[in-house]
Request: fold
Amino acid sequence: MTMPEYLHVHKERKDSIMANVIISPSKYVQGPGELANVAEYAVKLGKKPFVLISEGGRKRVGGIIEDSFKDTGCELTFETFNGECSKKEIDRLVAIVKEKSCDLVIGVGGGKIFDTAKAVAYYTETPVIICPTIAATDAPCSALTVVYTDDGVFEEYLWLPANPNVVLVDTDIIAKAPARLLVSGMGDALATYFEAKACQISNATSCAGGNVTVAAMTLAKACYDTLIEEGVKAKLAVEQDVCTPAVEKIIEANTLLSGIGFESGGLAGAHAIHNGLTCIKECHHLYHGEKVAFGTLTQLVLENADEDLLDEVISFCMEVGLPTTFADLGIENPDKDVLMEAATLAAAPTDTLGNEPMEITPEKVYAAMVGADALGRYYKGLE
Reply:
């Protein structure tokens, strides 16, 4: 399988006027019990759905999906996800879809399943429906697949020509998932506004292929405001396995507001630093959004954000349980050479740190990472 070239978004700045662009899924549906209605949307797109799901997900919600397709005449094919969105796994699944003559891909689960399902749908030229069972990332809505090696190290971005046909969010199921997953989604969403703002200032091309629209910036800011206002309440609610209005709002922020906000606003420092952290073995146990949260704090240090904003962001992270120090990331004894390796990977010309409105070097990224850790320790009373 040959991946399309990485879109060098930070190389696409233009002195001339560029069009403002916003992209989104064709349909977004959110509410309690919505997974039971998946067939209603699927039958309009295909008759032989390929359902990509984890083994645990099949046990939890497979019956709901099967019941939904009863009496539809559709031929379901379930396939267990191998755990990593890698070229090898995408190739394996593409071969099965072609062998079974499936005409629709449905991804059920979390971020890596979504990204894999979107890539498989792209290479097999089929529609795709995304059904989150967790709200741990903003991956459901995007026209993007993040490709990793089989060992979980970031490899490249695969930019897709279209967003998912349908994103179907069952809030009852998400509210029953571990609270850490919802909090991880908040970590991913935390970056959205700050990265979009950096791209706006530097006039960088967004993931949508143009300049940021007023609508995208408004959604990105609404995403951040919702996290600050509703995040703690939502975390406490899901710890009790209940879905309150705060949980509904955070699910929408994590999924839709952040999804459109990051894609049509742009990526910058936070996600590049996340990508750098993937080369550190001690960080492999962390969820995507947990690493992005520390990346966001590092981006703000790199930008020399004002003290009030840093206070708000760090306080939020501490309240909901997102990492603010190397120790929180699992790095108990920070090694300069290892951190420089991560900083160098983050600052690679094929990543998005170049969308920041200042000159970037690995040394500056390393300093910002160390500075972010120092701030986190200060707020924890460890300094």
Summary: The radius of gyration is 20 Å. Strands lie at 27-31, 49-53, 77-80, 104-109, 128-132, 144-148, 154-159, 166-170. The first strand starts at residue 27 and ends at 31. Residues 1-15 have pLDDT under 50 and may be disordered.
